[in-house]
Amino acid sequence: MAWVQKNRTTLAIAAAVLVASYVFYYAKNDIAPSMFGAAWGYAIPLVLAALVGVIGERSGVVNIGIEGQMLLAAFAGFFGAAYSGSMIVGILAGIGTGLIAGGFLAWTTVRWRMDQIIAGVVLNIIATGITSFYLKSGQTLPGVIPNVDVPVLGSIPLIGETFFSGRSAIALVAIAAAVLVHLSLFHTRWGLRTRAVGEYPSAADTAGINVERLRIVNVTLAGSLAGLAGVYLSMDASSSFERGITAGRGFLALAIMIMGAWRPLRAFVMALFFGFVNAIASQLQQSGLGQGEGTGFFHGIVGAITAPQILGTLPYVATLVVLALAAGRVRGPAAAGQPYVKKDQ
Known about the structure:
It contains 16 helices and two strands. It has helices spanning 2-6, 8-27, 32-58, 66-84, 87-111, 116-133, 159-164, 169-187, 189-199, 201-206, 211-237, 249-259, 264-287, 297-305, 308-311, 314-326, and strands spanning 147-148, 167-168. The N and C termini lie far apart (48 Å). The relative contact order is 0.17.
């Protein structure tokens, strides 16, 4: 009961959103399932990328390089599968590349104490350069990542259809990862140590925790989630690789992390919110709102607002609006972005 009382506002909002979702689902059953499915499809890489940011900043490392990690992993996964003829090899190549990129960021920021923002920007630049220089057109994947239907859960109206029916294994991993990271952060010894390192590294060091080692391990392993997000983009969502395939999702994931107050499950919900905003934009584009016949000032304004270029910016505009509303109401880990130096060094 104490937990319910403490989180009553969050629970009330969640209940209201759930009721509204089911009302929309049954009222517009012709378009609602596809919209919810598209929203979750867009949110999958955002969930994984936001978890990378949560783990990094909870450990005291600001990861601006998520975009670059995802881009490198998408490239390695797609071409690894294309050249080897094996989807498994491609998936492993993408995850491994994410780990390597995470290790690079961890080593440069923790061991060498490079400015964390600069290190992330360098990683993004390297990723853009490598993927653009070595890109070769005409390659195709040897297969597809199979979809999975979860028994019982997949038969639940709306929730089952959206999350557990006809989804790839990566989608299920994203759900499991959000729950697992949340439980691990707040209910395990590793989580307690990680939060201590991100809040009070000197006190954690005094308690016998190796601050540098824990930060390096956490940021490196978190890279596997960025790798999986990249694999999803090039091997599941599109089955192709194009320059800039991540399209700013790494930076959007950082905003989602902040709006989720550096908590995995809240970040999951915020990713769904932005996924639904994107689905609304897509639905408006398909409906051709403002593009039909008609004249006059009002019709011209509607046409300008609903132009595909404008609708495509909706998720990013929503990001700015929600960030502005959340400014000053959330507080990140106190030691995030600050390199730790032992007093005896």
